[in-house]
Structures are given as structure tokens and as C-alpha cells.
Amino acid sequence: MSSGIKSRRPAAPSPFDLNAYVHRCCKEVDRALGRFLPSASTKPATIHQAMRYSLFAGGKRMRPALVMAAAEACGGSWQEAMPLACAVECIHTYSLIHDDLPAMDNDDFRRGKPTNHKVYGEGVAVLAGDALLTQAFEIVAQARGWGRYSHQDLVLELARASGSLQLIAGQVADLEGEGKRLPLSELRYIHERKTSALLCCSVRFGGMSANCTPAQLRGLTEFGYNVGLAFQIIDDILDVTQSSETLGKTAGKDTAAQKATYPSLLGLDASKLEAARLTDRAFKALKVFRGRATALEALARYLLQRDR
Amino acid sequence: MSSGIKSRRPAAPSPFDLNAYVHRCCKEVDRALGRFLPSASTKPATIHQAMRYSLFAGGKRMRPALVMAAAEACGGSWQEAMPLACAVECIHTYSLIHDDLPAMDNDDFRRGKPTNHKVYGEGVAVLAGDALLTQAFEIVAQARGWGRYSHQDLVLELARASGSLQLIAGQVADLEGEGKRLPLSELRYIHERKTSALLCCSVRFGGMSANCTPAQLRGLTEFGYNVGLAFQIIDDILDVTQSSETLGKTAGKDTAAQKATYPSLLGLDASKLEAARLTDRAFKALKVFRGRATALEALARYLLQRDR
After folding, report:
1. B180 within some domain
2. Which of A86, A274, B27, B261 is most exposed, with the fewest beta carbons within 10 Å of its own?
3. Which residue among B47, B151, B162 sits closest to A172, beta carbon to beta carbon?
């Protein structure tokens, strides 16, 4: 270390490098997922290859990054949070595989690659989704419990966020809403469940892994809910404004499927304002962390400003 | 109570009434499942109706009965074992819904009623299966832990038995084996995973709910494995020998799908002998319970002697 007058002057705070953060998170989460899952050659190889195909198909690992950032905001570590981050990503990936099936959204491409059932067939795709869903709970059970939060709490948290009253409820309502002119309240119901539920669970998981206080957990819940809803509104907006090439998936699908979206009900500008308003509420929810939620703030800003 | 000489003479041991046992078990499990699951009118009603349709479609509740009987053998109670019995039944039902899908076994009838996707459509059937799988873990998390066995143990047990190395592995191998002449070792691999894995988990769950000793748990594991394999061989035999009407599902499906079965590889008589041999091993595994496993023995006898 150098000494003298210069070193006494506090360094200007370096701007938070979100790209580096997310990149490092992706790398570490990928490595951990690779260890948690049976290898691609484990019998029956087909199912493990199919699970890994979608799990390592270039997802942005936004949910794991939220888990990590929330853990940090509560004074925790990536290492402690890692199993929970991996579990959430398994749930997210399973839901994408099943959503893409012909009987649901019937998508041929996801992140610029053929969807699971296009590569492995529908039967194996259903089972790969089932296996990732089951794997998520196996991973949570392998995590260690943290003071206030037992395995019971963790399993309940994940099961409720991804169950028939939340994640699956959103998908069912979405499926049933196709071709109908839904009111905004119903569209909000869908978005809350399809997206907010698991984002909420992600940040709460991060907090739990850091043995957070009840006040911190409330802050994270409010943050997750609002970012999740904003995220989904942005998704609706991008479906209207961007090309398939930019998105890496079929654009204009919502319009083609006559799905109600925020832009179709509120218009584009009002939708953007609503997303901004929700993000503002999300930022306010971070006050409880008194400046220690840098990564969470940066992630929220990124989720609102992304163009793909 | 009457008194006198007559009452001092011990009553002749009344023969175990398996029908009454299973009937009472069905009733109590149905009631508990009804409480664990969201009501049929809970939004989104479609998914909860679809979940309940298959869960209450007249299943024999063999797995819950095994949970209860194993709990009793270890000195436990039905009440303590109930959440675990319900969780196992949710897993079993989800696996049937997904197995029946057109992309898998393509079955139109199950237990004499149209399969889930015939009533609710494929999309909802996939999601109803997902929801029951998720519900199983929510129910396990709601159970209380028992001395030697924590929630971590219980969740790991269920996740492994139903994951990509066991239950799902069996289904994948089954799917891939269609139209191929599989060797007996591969057919055994499939049966062990499609059936033994969850039966093993059922009796182990029963033992765990009674805070069983490690020796008792080993006995239950050996019992569950052998009964499970015998059960599946009987299923193969019935598919050949019984009518659709008797079975309540399409008979001769295995032959039609050119699936390898024990009868097709070993012949009918040798298959029956093999099932009997496995049941014998199962009975031997119950010695550790010193006569307190009456219900487990009766269930094993029923599973071998059933004609539907």
C-alpha cells in the first residue's frame, strides 16, 4: 500500500459496473448449476441433455442476479445465496419450456435457438420441464438453513411463488385470455403472477440467505413486486416495438395471438410511464437498505431501460 | 364392558380387514387432500378443477395406504403421516396426467374416465400436472419435522424419488424404448424407476413420520423396492390378460405400442413367478417389525393378487 497525503483523500466512488456484475454472476451461476444437475451423459442421457439445453441456452440470469444483489444488500454472500439462485433459475427455465409447447404459446424459438420441444420432441420437453421443477426443490433442500429461515420456509416460499395461485395461475389466465379483450385489472393479475411472483421470490430468497430482518424482507417484497410488474410491461412494449432478430424470439407474437397487452390497452406512452412509476416505487422500497442496495438499484434500472 | 371368565380369555385374532382399511384410508386421504388443495372455485378455477378432476378420479390410494401402513408398523399415527401421504398422491397423479398426454402414452381413458387433457385440453393438463407436482412440495413443507427426519430430509426424499434419476428417468426410458426389443435389464431399470421409486418413497415417508430407526428404514426400503417391482410386473401381466372394461383403462396398450413387458420377454408364467419371488423378499424385509406390519403385509398380498 502507498502512504502519504494522496492516499488519505477518499477515492471518488467508482460507478457500479452492472455488465461486469451480471457477467460474473452468469459465470458463477452456470458453474454451480453444472454441479447441481446430473451430467449430460448420466442415464437417461436424453433428459439430462434436454434439461441442460434449455438451462444453458443463453439466459440472462436476471433472477439469479437479483438473488445475489438482494443477498448483498442484506450483508450476505453469493456463496450462501447460490443454491437459491440456482433453484429459481431451474423454475424459470422449466416454465419457459412448458410455455413454449405447442399446446401453450407454441413458440419455435427462444433466445435465438430452437425451443426444447423442437429439438427433443414434445414428450421429452414436458419431462425436462418436470425434471427442472423437481430439481429446484432438490437444490433448495441441499442449501443450508439460515437462522430465521428454515428449509420449511424456503420450500414454502418457492412452492407458493411457482404454484397454482401464482406462476401457474398466471400462465392459465394468460392461456384463457387469448383472443379476449381483457380488462386492465385482469392483465395486471396475469403479469403479477407470470413475472412478479418469481422475481419477488428471487429477492426474498437473497434476503433469506443473508438472514435478513423482517423489515428488510418487506422492502425486498415491495421491490420485487414492482420491478416484476414493470419488467413484464416492458416485455409487452418490446414485443410491439422490436424485431424478432433483436429479441432472439418471435416478435409480434402477442398481437398475432390477439393477447391483451399493456400497450394494446393503455397505449405505448402510458405503458412506459406506468413501468417508470413502478420502478420508482421499487427504488423507494430500497430505502431500508440505506445505500447498500447498489446492485439491486442498477438491476432495476437495467430492467426498465433494456431494449431486448 | 362385560366382566367375568369369558372376558379373560384372549379373543381370537380377528383377520385383518384390508378392504375396510383401504376404504377408511381413501376417505381420510380424500378429506385431507381436499383441505390441502385450493378449492375448485379458487381463481383461476380451471386449474384447480383440473387438479381435482384427476386427484379425485377414483384412484385406489395405494401409495397413501402404504404410507399409513408403514407409519403404523413403526408405531406412528395416520395423523402424523397424512401430509406425506397426500404429497405422494399428488406426485403420482401429476405423473399420470403427464404420462397420458398425446406426446407420451396418448391415453384417452384412465380409471374408466376421460384423461385430463381430453377434458381440459393439453395446455391445462400440462399445467395441472405442474401444479400438483409443486403442490406436493408445498404440502411436505407444511408437515412438521420428526426428530431424526427434518424437512430437508423429507424434501430431498421426495425430490429424488420423483426426479430425473428415478420417476422421470423411468418415463423417459419407457418413451425411448417403444418399438424396441429391450433386454430384461433395461425393462427392470424402467420398472424400478416408474414404480418402485415412488413406492419406496411412500413406505419410507411412513417410517419417517413415525421417527423410525435406521434399521426400520432399511426394512421399508427393501420392502418398497420389491413390492414396487412386483406391482409393475403384475401391471404388465394384467395388460395382456384383462379387458379394458375390467381395468378401467385401455387394455392391450403395451402390445399395441410394441412396448417390452415382462410377459413379452419372460412369458406369462415366469413373470408371475418373478412377481411372487419379489413379494416373498418384500415379506422377509418386514421381519424387523416383529409382527407389527400387518397392514403392510396385507397390502403387499393385495398388490400381488389383484386382478385389475
Report:
1. yes
2. B27
3. B47
